[in-house]
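The passage that follows is intended for readers who have already worked through the single-chain material. We present the inputs for a multi-component assembly, then the predicted structure in tokenized form, and finally a short commentary. You are encouraged to pause after the input and sketch how you expect the pieces to fit together before reading on.
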Amino acid sequence: MNEIRLPDATEAPGRRGPRLWLSRLEGPQTMGRGLGFWIAAALVLLAAILYPAFNNDYTVGNAAYFLVWTFMAMGLGLVWGYCGALSFGQTAFFGLAGYAYGVITINIGSAFGATWLALVLAVALGGAFALLIGYFMFYGRIKGVFIGIVTLSVTLVLETFMAQTAGPQWRIGEARLNGFNGMSGMPPLTVPWFGGEILLYAGTTLYYVLLGMVVLVYLGLRMLLNAPFGNVLVAIRENPERTEMLGYGIRLYQMLAFGLGGALAGLSGVLYTAWGQYITPSSMGLTAAALPIVWVAVGGRRDITATLLGTLIVIAGFQSLTIYGSQYALVVMGALLVFTVLVTPNGLVFTVMSQIGRIFGKGRE
Amino acid sequence: MTTILEVRKLNKSFGGVTVARNIDFTLQAGAMHCLIGPNGAGKSTFFRLLLGEHTPESGTIYFGGDDITHLRSFQRIRKGISVKFQVPGIFKALSVRQNLEVAFQHHLHGASLSETVRRVLDFTNLSNEATTAAGVLSHGQQQWLEIGMAVGVEPKLLLLDEPTAGMSPDETRKTGEMLHDLNARGITILAVEHDMAFVQQISQSVTVLHMGSIFAEGSIDEMTAHPGVQEIYLGAADE
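Having made your guess, compare it with the prediction:
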């Protein structure tokens, strides 16, 4: 028999509350365990913390831009890699939340940390819209490639709709939607502070705020994926009929995962809008919709760490290539996707991490 | 004896083809009962109607006295029905232990979950494979794993769709022993099975389905001696 051995999944009996959740930072659904992994993770985080000390503000602001996208990628990893539903339209929730942030902040301003309220409301809107789409998809028994078709259609419809809102009648309160030219003029995230608020323009402060959010979301997802909820998502991916016949209402689980993925895409949308104070309908277009698929596939959709690292690597590479021309960069992205599908279907980063894990005997496989 | 499952006038058709025709069926609690019949007799459809995967056009299904005809599949499972599919319905990428944990975590947590997993690993002779990916187990072991997943939380009724399909004679015999053990613990068993030797090993009574209807019911000896049954099923099976 092929001796594939997987780590023990049993949670330590007797642990409750915060200790139980902390124990779920490691588990069967996430790669990386033991002191070695966490030391390596701490070193990576330390390097990220020290990064601004060795780079100018513009470069750090650009790195913050990379971090913006990781939430959408991790959400797609959850929906696609863990739950088995390939969504081609995470950008719908990205764009909706981005526009919502713009509309809310242009109307209520940024005083007293109101931008954070706008962030929460916009992310909730993105999540709620995803729950609604998820409800109709999963309770309507749509599955497989049709989920990709439906979600792609949703984002393209939103893009088309927003592109025709150029006229002056398309306004919500003070906020003009501005059609294909996009909406601008919203404030960045602000932090109320003694002697005046801190404006989080693209730069070092925003970089640290985003880095903290990435760490929190990443660790939170690790705990969620190693909890019973995550186990059921993986079971649904592997065999939905069997999962239902174990007594799980699988459509509810699928809908909740899709809603969470949508909220994370929404978080990226809000942060993107706040980062550049600008959002356009093309952020929901075909190219924008395809890119998260490439990031997650190349990184490794079935592991949240591989998804996170892969996304950062691919986005940084993509931006470097755009120096030579954006179309050229897109062709390389397409080629990278084809290479990944054919050679390392589990993802490049995932495959490398698996090999490292085998060497040290700590991997998931 | 109390009735655990009662089916009244159940009808289902696909296109113009009737696959369940006025099925009346009663199963007593604690029974080990087999459904037999030639290919296309409607056995699997009957199972899928019981599980809620198909919706009947008419008729009623009672489980433990409750009308479950309009419940979703997972709601029926929560009432105490469990199933083992013909093709092993396991999670191949997960370890054996994870398969069992997913199967039981809906009902159990912490120490009781660990204890039940340990007990089922022991029962299914898979203790040494606890951390092995389920997809690389032998076919027989995969069948046992699924039986373990189906019975760990002790359902009232276990539905088995050809539980020994693809098993070696030794694995088949062990499976029969497992089912007797489960039945002795109070689990009612209803199995679709083609292997008549296995039917004789596990079953006290048999129902013969033919063209979507109940053709005959009785003991295994009565059915094997039944001329009509020999003609529609046993004779056909020998061809």
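Commentary: The first strand of chain A starts at residue 171 and ends at 172. Residues 1-7 of chain A have pLDDT under 50 and may be disordered. How closely did your sketch match?
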